[in-house]
Structure prediction request, 355 residues.
Amino acid sequence: MAQRIAEWDMLARQASEPNPFFESWYLLPALRAFDPEGEVRIIAFEANGRLAGLMPLRRQLRYYRWPIPNMASWLHGNCFLGAPLVAKGAEHAFWHALLAWADAHGGAALFLHLRQLPLTGALHAALGDVLAEGNREAAIVHREERAMLASGLSPDAYLEAALSGKKRKELRRQFARLSELGAVRFERRGDAEALAPWTGQFLALEAAGWKGRAGSALSNEPATAGLFREALAGAAARGRLERLTLYLDGRPVAMLATFLTPPGAFSYKTAFDESLARFSPGVLLQRENLAILEREGIDWTDSCAAADHPMIDHVWRERRSVGAVSIAIGGTLRRTAFHHLVQAELRRQTARAPA
Prediction:
């Protein structure tokens, strides 16, 4: 098992499309937390005797609210990207192999449904090529744009371009007023020292806010709290975690955990003290976080936020397209049924779209 995980970690470092949520240190604890019955299958693709692709799949009896069996990439509430881990240069071979496997092992599934796929980049382009080569029908059945940070500007220049002079002045005023309450400092760490207490402080800070009251904080469920602890420890052990904290008199009032997956990064979880909301500690932390623009080896950062996020969308100006792709599998009858299904779904989407 240790050897297999080492191969998995090597694949992640060579991946065409970075995805921390399918790396060993995140996916394995997620499976322990959310797949106790072992229904998820990790599909591994090998090329020249080496692990060159990996994706978790699960058979489902329902397609959202409809009783339509399908085979889908496995995601959960704290998994923010569904891109398979595929070695650079193996993108076409991986998609060929995955679709051939789905054809042969579809069972009752009517189609393959891949969620939270990046809709740009080499991996997406290779999928389009393979679908066209096989004359295989597919459709993007959902698309969204979420905030992304990707710029050659310095942090100061980026902030000036992103926010109005009035808003920048307001942030300076809020920082000054917060400083009147006590000693204010930022701390950025990439090691594992004192990680356990930091993780505990994060969980407590998040639980004290609206997420705790709504029952959606990580600590509201032992499974999600356990995943958070294990994932941060696993990422830190591999040098793939950055922790950014805003302290007031030694007390954390805003915290951010970022996964580092060169050439990209993922802004995984953030929390702030809502009793200090008038000082915008979360925005002050994001202002400091713009320093990642100058981090060597990191060209972009995915916010992992929902589309139209009320805070980060106003600070990060770039957008990342992600979506769900449904793909025909199996023989003629199954593909014919899929054609009618997906066309009906696309018509419904068109009818719902604003004029």
Summary: The domain at 2-145+322-352 is CATH 3.40.630.30 (Aminopeptidase). The chain has eleven helices and twelve strands.
